[in-house]
Amino acid sequence: MIIKRLWPSVAWALFILLLTGMPGAYVPKVTSFLDWASPDKIVHFILFGGLAYLILYGYSNYFNGGEKSLGIIITAILIATLYGLLTEVLQHYVFIGRNGNIFDFVADAIGAVIGFLAFYLLNIKKTNRNYVDKD
């Protein structure tokens, strides 16, 4: 059942919300001469890449190599990216001691794409190779 396969992505999304909603005083500050290249962005890559990966994992039984698979991939990347946008908006307008950052959102979106690439390399490519080997 799809719900069982999606619970890791839902749990990960809640974990992201918890981390992004923590007051700024509790988040370690790392200074860098380039804000967009700070180690903080690596955390965004990992968080939102992980979210895209887990969403794709949840739907992995539905991959057929056709348009449906492409739709699932695009949807997973969009969900992770839009969730990144949501967390930045919440940080800017709702969460106390936090402020949204466009560079964080860009890192979230790049992370979502990296999550897809990781999923592709670890799962889809391997599955396609198995189909070729069986023929």
Overview of this protein structure:
With 135 residues, the chain is mostly helical. It has helices at 2-21, 39-58, 67-93, 102-134. The chain contains 4 helices and no strands. The model is unreliable at 131-135 (pLDDT under 50). The longest helix is centred in the C-terminal third of the chain and has 33 residues, at 102-134. The radius of gyration is 17 Å and the shape is elongated. It has one domain.
Could you tell me the mean pLDDT? Answer: 84
Largest sheet: none
How many individual β-strands? 0
Q: What is the terminal separation in angstroms? A: 29 Å
By helix and strand content, what is the structural category?
A: mainly alpha
Number of domain units: 1
Radius of gyration: 17 Å
User: Which range does the strand content fall in?
Assistant: under 5%
Looking at the chains present, what oligomeric state does this protein adopt? single chain
Give the overall form: elongated
How many H/I helices?
4
Along the chain, the helix and strand elements come as HHHH
Low-confidence stretches: 131-135
SSE arrangement:
Blueprint (H helix, E strand, L loop, with lengths): L1 H20 L17 H20 L8 H27 L8 H33 L1
Helix pairs in contact: 1-2, 1-3, 2-3, 2-4, 3-4
Distinctive features:
135 residues; mainly alpha; 74% helix; elongated
